[in-house]
Amino acid sequence: MIRKKVKLAYITNDSSRKATYKKRKKGLMKKMSELSTYCGIDTCAIMYSPYESETEFWPSP
Amino acid sequence: MIRKKVKLAYITNDSSRKATYKKRKKGLMKKMSELSTYCGIDTCAIMYSPYESETEFWPSP
DNA sequence: GATTCTATTGTTAGATG
DNA sequence: ACATCTAACAATAGAAT
To answer: Assuming Cys at both sites, which of A2, A11, A38, B2 could form a disulfide with A17, CB separation 3.0 to 4.6 Å?
Structure first.
């Protein structure tokens, strides 16, 4: 399996872009949660998207 | 060089915790910025900490 | 205490069910 | 459309400077 290097630019293909959004959102949420835990601090991430809008806080209010 | 697997918990050592905060904040900011670019959406990350407080938006206002 | 190094762990693009 | 797989790629813990 060979993956092409992805350049940092808007993904024009609709399904690829949505798939990337879903995967990366999940990864980001995890990392924000980890930072909150490791450092004992409050964090919040906001992502607006056509698919949905997400606002999440850590630690969970 | 052997690195122990880190468990997901508050890092009690002050300098380790601060170092982790700095490194992970940088990584998170990069990823938020990438998500904004890849998907053409607005994102925002907020991190409160004793060291500083950070709020950043993408794309840059 | 900031910066750099790198072994290791973690994330994810594209493929496949 | 959604879940899972995994090679390729990226982030980072701990050490060194």
So the answer is: A11
